[in-house]
Amino acid sequence: MIEMSEQSELEIEWTTGDGAMVLGPRYHDGNLVSVHIDKQQVEVVIDAVGGGQTRFRFLCAEFGSIGLVSHAIVSDVFAFPIHRSDDPDPAMSEAIHVLNGGMTPLGDIVTESRFMLGHHESLLVFFTCSYGGPFSILCHQMIVTRRGY
């Protein structure tokens, strides 16, 4: 058995399931503690139900939100890999809309096609919240860690 101190972080392997939902890290119904936006990085920290924190770190990232509030409750996280050959996935429509701060029409196939071409080989991550607004992050890499098991 591996013992961990309160300050130790363990990298969590993640994958996606049906509908691009992120599986592996504990985040469902967790309390959003912080969103830190830096020039080349975004970090999201969530207090997990049952204790500990889950930290999502996004490298070379862009951030967008509609109605995000402090102490939001995270429902689900989705991760959409973007490839040059992909047609826009209807499930990505809301994530693209939120990334652009609601400034692009929801479900606009032309806008979404241009988005896909301009951001190939990226990852679009979409956080939905049962309390507080959704937010999206476009990045080149997502690293998930866990602290305080």
What can you see in these coordinates?
- The chain has 149 residues and is mainly β.
- The chain has 2 helices and 11 strands.
- A 9-stranded antiparallel beta sheet has the order 1-11-6-5-4-8-9-10-7, covered by helices on one side. A two-stranded antiparallel sheet has the order 2-3.
- It is globular and about 45 Å long.
What keywords describe this structure?
9-stranded antiparallel beta sheet; single chain; two-stranded antiparallel sheet; 149 residues; 11 strands; mainly beta
User: How many beta-strand segments?
Assistant: 11
Query: How much helix is in the residues?
Result: 10-25%
Distance between the termini: 13 Å
Q: What best-fitting shape do the alpha-carbon axes yield?
A: globular
Run of helices and strands: EEEEEEEEHHEEE
Brief rundown of the structure:
It contains two helices and eleven strands; from the N terminus they run ββββββββααβββ.
